## 1
Amino acid sequence: MNATALILLALGAVSLVVLVGQHVWRLPRWLPPVLIFTGFGGVLAGMGVFALALVVG
Protein backbone atom coordinates (compact mmCIF):
# COMPACT_ATOMS: atom_id res chain seq x y z
CA MET A 1 0.00 0.00 0.00
CA ASN A 2 1.48 3.32 -0.97
CA ALA A 3 1.80 6.22 1.42
CA THR A 4 -0.90 8.40 -0.14
CA ALA A 5 -3.53 5.69 0.14
CA LEU A 6 -2.49 4.93 3.71
CA ILE A 7 -2.69 8.61 4.73
CA LEU A 8 -6.13 9.04 3.15
CA LEU A 9 -7.45 5.87 4.76
CA ALA A 10 -6.08 6.89 8.16
CA LEU A 11 -7.60 10.37 7.84
CA GLY A 12 -10.97 8.89 6.97
CA ALA A 13 -10.83 6.32 9.76
CA VAL A 14 -9.90 8.88 12.41
CA SER A 15 -12.66 11.22 11.23
CA LEU A 16 -15.24 8.44 11.47
CA VAL A 17 -14.02 7.42 14.94
CA VAL A 18 -14.36 11.01 16.15
CA LEU A 19 -17.81 11.18 14.56
CA VAL A 20 -18.91 8.03 16.38
CA GLY A 21 -17.44 9.31 19.66
CA GLN A 22 -19.11 12.70 19.45
CA HIS A 23 -21.50 11.78 22.25
CA VAL A 24 -18.50 11.66 24.60
CA TRP A 25 -16.79 14.87 23.45
CA ARG A 26 -18.32 18.28 22.88
CA LEU A 27 -18.01 19.23 19.23
CA PRO A 28 -19.08 22.44 17.51
CA ARG A 29 -22.28 22.22 15.44
CA TRP A 30 -20.40 22.69 12.17
CA LEU A 31 -17.95 19.82 12.77
CA PRO A 32 -20.09 16.65 12.24
CA PRO A 33 -20.83 17.39 8.54
CA VAL A 34 -17.13 18.05 7.99
CA LEU A 35 -16.28 14.77 9.73
CA ILE A 36 -18.80 12.87 7.60
CA PHE A 37 -17.34 14.36 4.43
CA THR A 38 -13.70 13.75 5.38
CA GLY A 39 -14.47 10.32 6.83
CA PHE A 40 -16.24 8.77 3.88
CA GLY A 41 -14.29 10.82 1.37
CA GLY A 42 -10.97 9.83 2.88
CA VAL A 43 -11.82 6.14 2.99
CA LEU A 44 -13.16 6.11 -0.57
CA ALA A 45 -10.28 8.18 -1.92
CA GLY A 46 -7.76 5.95 -0.13
CA MET A 47 -9.30 2.83 -1.62
CA GLY A 48 -9.38 4.49 -5.04
CA VAL A 49 -5.75 5.54 -4.90
CA PHE A 50 -4.78 2.05 -3.75
CA ALA A 51 -6.73 0.42 -6.59
CA LEU A 52 -5.21 2.84 -9.08
CA ALA A 53 -1.74 2.03 -7.78
CA LEU A 54 -2.45 -1.67 -8.23
CA VAL A 55 -3.60 -1.15 -11.81
CA VAL A 56 -0.75 1.16 -12.81
CA GLY A 57 1.86 -0.94 -11.11
Note: The mean pLDDT is 93.
## 2
Amino acid sequence: MSSTQPTVRTAAPPLRVRDQAREAAALIAFSAATACGLALALLLLTHLGSQG
Protein backbone atom coordinates (compact mmCIF):
# COMPACT_ATOMS: atom_id res chain seq x y z
CA MET A 1 0.00 0.00 0.00
CA SER A 2 1.52 3.29 -1.02
CA SER A 3 1.35 6.24 1.30
CA THR A 4 0.78 9.17 -1.00
CA GLN A 5 -0.31 12.38 0.57
CA PRO A 6 -2.95 14.49 -1.14
CA THR A 7 -1.66 17.63 -2.73
CA VAL A 8 -2.74 20.81 -1.04
CA ARG A 9 -3.82 23.51 -3.44
CA THR A 10 -3.48 27.02 -2.21
CA ALA A 11 -5.84 29.66 -3.48
CA ALA A 12 -4.38 32.19 -5.87
CA PRO A 13 -3.91 35.62 -4.35
CA PRO A 14 -6.70 38.04 -5.21
CA LEU A 15 -6.10 40.34 -8.14
CA ARG A 16 -5.15 43.90 -7.40
CA VAL A 17 -7.56 46.64 -8.37
CA ARG A 18 -5.08 47.81 -11.02
CA ASP A 19 -5.07 44.35 -12.61
CA GLN A 20 -8.86 44.14 -12.49
CA ALA A 21 -9.14 47.56 -14.14
CA ARG A 22 -6.70 46.50 -16.87
CA GLU A 23 -8.68 43.34 -17.57
CA ALA A 24 -11.94 45.29 -17.63
CA ALA A 25 -10.48 47.82 -20.08
CA ALA A 26 -9.22 45.02 -22.31
CA LEU A 27 -12.65 43.38 -22.27
CA ILE A 28 -14.36 46.68 -23.12
CA ALA A 29 -11.93 47.32 -25.98
CA PHE A 30 -12.41 43.80 -27.35
CA SER A 31 -16.19 44.08 -27.12
CA ALA A 32 -16.19 47.47 -28.84
CA ALA A 33 -13.92 46.23 -31.63
CA THR A 34 -16.10 43.15 -32.15
CA ALA A 35 -19.30 45.21 -32.23
CA CYS A 36 -17.80 47.70 -34.69
CA GLY A 37 -16.55 44.88 -36.91
CA LEU A 38 -19.93 43.19 -36.98
CA ALA A 39 -21.72 46.48 -37.65
CA LEU A 40 -19.34 47.25 -40.50
CA ALA A 41 -19.85 43.78 -42.00
CA LEU A 42 -23.63 44.15 -41.78
CA LEU A 43 -23.47 47.59 -43.34
CA LEU A 44 -21.31 46.25 -46.17
CA LEU A 45 -23.68 43.34 -46.77
CA THR A 46 -26.74 45.58 -46.88
CA HIS A 47 -24.97 48.02 -49.18
CA LEU A 48 -23.93 45.25 -51.57
CA GLY A 49 -27.38 43.69 -51.39
CA SER A 50 -29.18 46.89 -52.34
CA GLN A 51 -27.09 47.31 -55.52
CA GLY A 52 -27.76 43.86 -56.93
Note: The chain has one helix and no strands.
